[in-house]
Design goal:
Peptide Deformylase, 9 strands, 26% helix, binds zinc ion
Length: 174
């Protein structure tokens, strides 16, 4: 079931989300719905707060495209109660988008690598070092569960450029 997305202006996007208490069938069904919602909206990552659920949980699936236009589906990953550590000193600027901020894209400077420790859908804790787009995605989504949006990390100039668009989203989507 596709879930309704929380857009910029919705107060849940500014809350520090609560830890997930139990990994059970209800949660697994919710995560399934999250993947469906992410796919239908062409996203690479989605946090639970973006579909109105106050929990520390996000998902990702980084797909890649071949030259002939066909898609290689990435591995679906689930991060429950994630903790990010050891960001690399090397920082990279990359363009980001966000399903809660339709039509807005901008450059965000973030560490190139990060370690993520989280619980999976079987309730097991795992730890992994990520680079590239996967690292980027984890940092963007982890921001969501702390009430932070990518526009908070835009340069003042870039932030000003999207001001009018943000006001429109706030007006239209409620
Ligand atoms: Zn986002």
């Amino acid at each position: 079931m596709e879930l309704p997305i929380a857009y910029f202006g919705d107060t849940i996007l500014r809350k520090k989300a609560k830890p997930v208490e139990a990994v059970d069938d209800e949660l697994r069904k919710f995560v399934e719905d999250m993947f469906e919602t992410m796919d239908k909206n062409d996203g690479a990552g989605l946090a639970a707060v973006q579909v109105h659920r106050d929990m520390r949980l996000f998902i990702s699936r980084i797909d890649t495209w071949n030259r002939d236009g066909t898609v290689n589906l990435g591995t679906p990953l689930v991060f429950i109660n994630p903790v990010l550590t050891d960001p690399s000193p090397e920082m990279i600027a990359m363009e980001e988008g966000c399903l809660s901020l339709p039509g807005i894209r901008g450059m965000v400077l973030r560490p190139a690598e990060v370690t993520v420790e989280a619980t999976d859908l079987n309730g097991n804790r795992f730890k992994e070092r990520y680079t590239g787009i996967q690292a980027r995605c984890c940092m963007h989504e982890n921001d969501h569960i702390n009430g932070v949006l990518m526009i908070d990390r835009f340069s003042p100039r870039e932030r000003k450029m999207v001001d009018a668009k943000l006001r429109l989203i706030k007006k239209k989507k409620r």
